[in-house]
Design goal:
This protein is mainly alpha-helical. Among the domains are: 4-73, no CATH class; 85-174. Helices cover 64% and strands 0% of the residues. The chain contains 7 helices and no strands. It has helices spanning 18-41, 44-50, 56-84, 93-109, 116-125, 132-139, 147-200. Helix 3 packs antiparallel against helix 4. The mean pLDDT is 82.
C-alpha cells in the first residue's frame, strides 16, 4: 500500500477543476487499492458490514472507533479485576499468588505497567486476615522487597504455618489418645466395683411359701390336712 495509504485519512478531493480532477483520479485509485486490501483481510461477518462502504477512509475510521472503544472497555475491566481481587483463607496461598501474576500479565498486555514497589505493597495488603501479624512485620521492614523476593518470602511463611498446624494437630491427637487410655482402666475398675456391689446386694427372688401340714386330722386321723379341710 506504499503511496496509497493517504486514502485512509484524506477524503475524496473536489474534481470540479482540471487540476483537482487529476488529484481525484489518483485518490480514486488509491481508495480502490486501500478498500480492496481492507475488505480482503476481514472476516466474513465484518465483510458483510463494510462491503457497502465506498471509501476506505470510512471503513478505517469506523474500525478505529469500534476497536479503540473495545480496548478502552477491556482496560477498565482488567483494572477493575485487579482492584477488586482479594485473598481468602480457603484457597491455597500458591494458587492465589498465581492468580495475582495473571492479573499483572493482563495489565501488561494492555500496556498498563505498574511499579514493582506498588504491586509488592498491594500484595501484602491483600493477604488474608489471619496473616495480620505477618503483614505488620513486613510493613516495618527497612528494605524494600521486590515482587519475586516477596513471593518467595510468603511461600516460605505459608510452608512454616502448615508445618506448625500439622504438628499442633498431631500433638492434640496424642493428648486425646493419652486421655482415652487413662479413662479405660478407671472405667474397668468402676465396672468391677459395680459388679461386685451388685453381687453382694443381690438376693434370691421371693416365692410364695408352702407350708406343709403337720400332724394328723382330728376327724379322720389321716395326715396332710386339718379338720376344716376334711371331707369325712
Amino acid at each position: 500500500m506504499h503511496g496509497v495509504a493517504y486514502a485512509l485519512t484524506v477524503p475524496k478531493p473536489d474534481s470540479s477543476t482540471s487540476a483537482s480532477a487529476s488529484k481525484s483520479d489518483d485518490w480514486s485509485q488509491a481508495n480502490k487499492v486501500c478498500r480492496h486490501t481492507i475488505l480482503s483481510a476481514l472476516s466474513n461477518d465484518l465483510f458483510k458490514v463494510y462491503c457497502s462502504y465506498k471509501e476506505a477512509k470510512d471503513i478505517w475510521d469506523s474500525m478505529i472507533m469500534k476497536y479503540t472503544a473495545e480496548d478502552s472497555v477491556r482496560q477498565r475491566f482488567i483494572i477493575g479485576n485487579y482492584y477488586r481481587w482479594e485473598m481468602t483463607e480457603e484457597k491455597d496461598i500458591k494458587v492465589q499468588i498465581n492468580e495475582y501474576h495473571k492479573l499483572l500479565e493482563d495489565l501488561k498486555s494492555e500496556n498498563l505497567s505498574l511499579p514493582d514497589e506498588f504491586v509488592s505493597e498491594l500484595l501484602i495488603e491483600k493477604l488474608p486476615e489471619s496473616w495480620t501479624d505477618y503483614k505488620q512485620h513486613l510493613k516495618h521492614r527497612h528494605k524494600q522487597m521486590s515482587l519475586s523476593d516477596l513471593i518467595t518470602h510468603i511461600i516460605i511463611e505459608d510452608a512454616n504455618r502448615k508445618e506448625c498446624a500439622a504438628a499442633k494437630a498431631k500433638s492434640l491427637a496424642a493428648k486425646a489418645n493419652v486421655v482415652q487410655v487413662q479413662e479405660q482402666p478407671n472405667k474397668k475398675r468402676y465396672d468391677q466395683k459395680k459388679n461386685k456391689y451388685n453381687s453382694k446386694n443381690s438376693f434370691p427372688r421371693a416365692t410364695n411359701p408352702v407350708f406343709k401340714k403337720k400332724g394328723n386330722c382330728f376327724v379322720c386321723g389321716k395326715p396332710g390336712h386339718h379338720a376344716p379341710q376334711c371331707h369325712f
